[in-house]
Known about the structure:
Radius of gyration: 20 Å
Mean pLDDT: 77
Largest sheet: none
Number of strands: 0
Amino acid sequence: FEDIxxxxxxxLATVKRASKIWSYETSKSRxxxxxxxxxxxAIAISVHSMESKSNLGKLARSDxxxxxxxxxxxxxxxxxxxRINVKETDTCPNCHIEAEDNVHFLCHCPYxxxxxxxxxxxxxxxxxxxxxxNHLKIL
Length: 139
């Protein structure tokens, strides 16, 4: 008979952790390499970083999905619905001033003036400010 050598199996927790890291790095490199006109692209990447996973860990999966869609400009706002041919115009239905994209929705729309003041302390905010805000406030 041949000698069979047995090795100690890798613990499942180690395999899961390595899989998560590999998955994160792969998706991050794919997402980062795609040219984007989305001004919040970098924030969307940072939300899914391994460091912020601990902060977002208590978040329901549906809320994380909403946050990702808002930051990646795939939320059901007029600009996205227009891009996928669901709406005839991309103009904001609340203020009728400009296209309703994620930046307009989060930073500029006068319709959300009071809500932004409550959440962020300012009636209008900049994209650079959003990089430092607690992402849970966006929900």
